[in-house]
Design brief:
The relative contact order is 0.17. It is globular, with a radius of gyration of 17 Å. It is of the alpha/beta class. Strands 3-2-4-1-5-6 form a 6-stranded parallel β-sheet, with helices on both faces. The chain contains 9 helices and 6 strands. 52% of the residues lie in helices and 13% in strands.
């Protein structure tokens, strides 16, 4: 089972919309997927209530229960868990970061948003987990996204290669419990999510593979002693 945490200390970064779309992308690929909604506003849970399909499962959760919930998900043969963290909640965000194989930090390409990601990056550093900033809601026209990427990279911040643009389909689809892919699987929004999902799974597989190799090496060293 793989676990992805979507974290941002700033509200309005698009965490829940991202979690929903990635979860649907996983389900469409035959992955048994769950969203753990740590946000007191329970936006992901509200989306699930409107949804006609039973999957992906959305679980309203508290940070303290994350370890046990993850064990339950794995026991129930979950392939992927996506943790939708709460803004301005250091304890919950840190718990999510520690539980994750990979951390995604959505960030809009605006000065206030770019300046606010430092706290979130610090949490990822404390958790010791790989984190990538994802530029989200980038204007389709102009060079705002490119300029934001340059600023982040110049500051030594690792930025995900895919970008999500500010497209109506993302917000419109979730209003009635769907995702952009389900609204129109040929849309630009669907294509962007598919690209991002493939990128995330590739990097998550890499991280879980590295940890598995490290564990195997430790076992070999212990046996050698």
């Amino acid at each position: 089972m793989k676990t992805i945490a979507i974290i941002s200390q700033k509200g309005g970064a698009g965490k829940t919309t991202l979690a929903i779309h990635l979860a649907v992308a996983a389900e469409q690929r035959g992955m048994n997927t769950a969203i753990f909604d740590l946000d007191p506003q329970a936006s992901a849970a509200s989306w699930s209530d409107k949804r006609e399909k039973p999957s992906p499962a959305v679980v309203s959760a508290q940070a303290a229960r994350l370890p046990s919930l993850l064990k339950q998900a794995e026991a129930q043969s979950a392939d992927l868990v996506i943790i939708d963290s709460a803004p301005n909640a250091d304890a919950a965000s840190l718990a999510a970061a520690r539980a994750a194989d990979l951390i995604i930090i959505p960030c809009r390409p605006a000065a206030f948003d770019l300046n606010a990601i430092g706290t979130t990056l610090s949490l990822a550093l404390v958790a010791g987990k790989p984190a990538y900033v994802l530029l989200n809601a980038v204007p389709p026209q102009g060079k705002v996204g490119e300029e934001a990427r340059n600023v982040l990279v110049a500051g030594g911040i690792v930025v995900a290669e895919p970008v999500l643009h500010h497209l109506v389909a993302f917000s419109h689809a979730v209003n009635d419990g769907r995702s952009a892919q389900e609204l129109d699987h040929k849309s630009k929004a669907a294509a962007e999510i598919n690209t991002l999902f493939a990128w995330i799974i590739k990097h998550t597989n890499k991280q879980t593979g590295l940890r598995a190799n490290t564990k195997t090496n430790k076992q070999i060293n212990q046996q050698a002693k």
